[in-house]
Amino acid sequence: MSVTDPAATDAVATDAVATDAVVTDARAVEDRPLRVAVILGSVREGRLGQAVTDWFLTTAAALDPGLDLDVVDLAELDLPLVLPGWGGTPSPEAAAALADVSPRLAAADAFVVVTPEYNHSFPAVLKNLIDWHLREWQAKPVGFVSYGGLGGGLRAVEQLRLVFAELHAVTVRDSVSLHGPWSGLGEDGVPRDAEVCAGAAKGMLGQLTWWARALRTARAERPYAG
Fold first, then answer.
1. Rounded CA gap, 154 and 167, in Å?
2. Minimal CA–CA distance to 105: which of 139, 70, 64?
3. At what angle do helices 154-166 and 124-131 cross, to 10 degrees?
């Protein structure tokens, strides 16, 4: 005849309740719409980035109407170039800018960076935004929409992949590359080769949303310790 320890029984029951709570929370997370921060990475006067971003937003909404798309336009963000020292406090100007943008990046499940290519790289304003943040990027996927010249901004994207890898983000393999946008985009901002570009967007978004859901669930079940 065996005797059951009441304390052990209570512990098992408590563990079961805790496990059920984790599963319930994970399912609730899975059911939420994916929030994608679309970062417009150009601030140059006469930029084409706005037209490219508008086209991507329209295309993404048609491909996946359930996405919650949040545009972070760096031209509207006055983020200083001077960063505080380690453990330091941001200036009042920086704190005001961060109060707007940081919660939006933290709330995002994934990112899409719209970037031109300047001198074989990406704009300094984009690197500045990235460097002001750390945990907001971690264990989240990043996709790219690039434009510019014959290379279509691909050299900027390849450098951004290295930067985001350092920040523990996951960049998706496929990207959208618009080559020679001054001739490849119509006056309405829609690519003239719309079918090919929409196909590229579909491929990139498919990978991005898969990773976004997988990593969001993983973060909910076990916080990332990067």
1. 20
2. 70
3. 10
Q: Encoding tokens for residue 127?
A: 């690197």
Q: How far is CA 91 from CA 84, 97, 105, 168, in A?
A: 8, 10, 20, 27
d(CA 98, CA 105): 10
Can you read off the two tokens belonging to residue 112? 């899409």
Under 8 Å between Cβ of 48 and 54 = no
CA distance 143 to 204: 7
Per-residue pLDDT of the chain (226 residues; tens, 9 = 90+): 445 566 655 655 555 555 555 545 556 667 799 999 999 999 999 899 999 999 999 999 999 999 999 999 999 999 999 999 988 899 999 999 999 999 999 999 999 999 999 999 999 999 999 999 999 999 999 999 999 888 899 999 999 999 999 999 999 999 999 987 666 777 776 788 889 999 999 999 999 999 999 999 999 999 998 7
SS3 of the chain: CCCCCHHHHHHHHHHHHHHHHHHHHHHHHHHCCCEEEEEECCCCCCCCHHHHHHHHHHHHHHHCCCCEEEEEEHHHCCCCCCCCCCCCCCCHHHHHHHHHHHHHHHHCCEEEEEEECECCECCHHHHHHHHCCCCCCCCCEEEEEEECCCCCCHHHHHHHHHHHHHCCCEECCCCEEECCHHHHECCCCCECCHHHHHHHHHHHHHHHHHHHHHHHHHHHHCCCCC
